[in-house]
Amino acid sequence: MKWFRWPIVLGAMWWLSGTALAVDEPTLEEVELPVWSTWKDGDKRAWLAANGILSPKVELEEHEQGPDGLNKLLELYFFEEDETVYNKWSTKDLRMWLISRQLVPREEAYKLSHQSLLELVEHNFLSAEMSSCHGWTPAEALEWLEQNGHGEEGRKAEGNEVFNVMTKYFNRGSDTVAEFMVWPDSRLRTFLRARGVKEPKKTKRNRNDLVHMVRVRTAQKKVSNEDLVRQLQAVLQSGAEWSEEQLLASLAILGGTKHRGAGKAMREASKFVVDSRAKERNIHEEEEKLKRERDDSGKSARDLNHSGGIGSTAFACERSLRSFGHHEHAKRMLVCPRDDQTSKGSVPGSRKLGRFCRRSCK
Fold first, then answer.
1. Would you state the pLDDT for residue 115?
2. pTM score, two decimals?
3. Are 231 and 255 in contact (CB under 8 A)?
């Protein structure tokens, strides 16, 4: 190859490599923005206050107090109601979790879709994670057995044998702490921080520590009414404008979220907001309808007062009767209501109808 062709070849290789990188690099449209990214500051403060992050008991770090402090707090603590630790895992993470626990053969795991892998993880997560007893002490294991009605069998076990007894009942789904075992790390941190507990720094290896810290505190006293009142006050004072997020947060507190999160209270609050909007819309439509009817009846009355001639007044009275719902009378109306004179071709009883029309038009 001649020397002058080298620049062309190298340029083509550089262009192809750049194209490949551009294909692999995610675009702005592919980046999923958090739910709270479009919230106002008042809504952000309302959520943080409802979940105990903004509270007199919680001291903010220096980096959490700046202009971007609310975003930093939400990045670390925000969670969605139905979010789990595994529902946002990548296909690779789901596959490796199943393979490492020998729940699915490696060859089969690579043939499964993302949704199939997610369903397998969801089905096996609790039994796999809880049966390991990671981070438990013998005393905590015995306490768990007593709470779940297996204390006598646990007391007969010696030393670490209590874990074997505990594992046996873990898989039966009787565990009272199973709920928070699937919480995302952000929700575990929220639970701890709302109770004034200094959670460990954010790393990839400290989930077991978070679960352990939450587990030993679930048996502590429940949130008092005074705590709920302080939480509600923090929400109400979180922003200058009352918003839907503040309403949801307030109703969630009144529903007694405790460590369970928003749950049913949030769903009921959302339904309340939707029903309220529908009711407000129906009231507005009804008012518009009544206004149109009043305008029509007023126009009919003006026609009666200002129009001349028997035919025009009879026609106006007919319209007036129809606007008041007297359709049958309107069909038979052939009389002038102003002077009570029967028009040509009137039917029997037309004078009586004229008097009825006058009463209706008043």
1. 95
2. 0.52
3. no
